[in-house]
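Hi everyone,

Forwarding the result from last night's run.
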Amino acid sequence: MRVGLYPGTFDPITLGHIDIIRRASALVDKLVIGVAINRDKGPLFSLEERVAMIEAECAFLSAQTATEIVAHPFENLLIDCASDVGAQIIVRGLRAVADFEYEFQMVGMNRVLDDSIETVFLMAEARHQAIASKLVKEIARLDGDVSNFVTPRVNAALRERLG
């Protein structure tokens, strides 16, 4: 069984994330969405809320692609999380050159820690390349329209949280 791990904070999950999840699910039999418990980032949504959003948004994708998609919270090293869930690959989404520079360093470090786990980069589709959760939250906070960046369910959660 090919298992992939797609890590992130997903605060909140965006259409860009969903695009990468959809495309990554074609590469593996099981896709684990690693939800980082990064307390330093001060997420808008709790871990439980982020996991619930991911599960709700990915249920259709899982049925559509016949790939098992599960959310898995983690707070340890990414490479250790990959080992914990039995992942042979780590999936990373790229939006721009700046993403690649950071990811390049991460891959190098992860290869030293465990060279049996490969990293696969998927470029976000052009229409999703500008989407970042941080920007989505800022737009929503300032009462802007984020409907082009998130699903209706996530949009409603943002509106409820931010008033």
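The domain at 3-126 is CATH 3.40.50.620 (Rossmann fold).

Cheers,
N.
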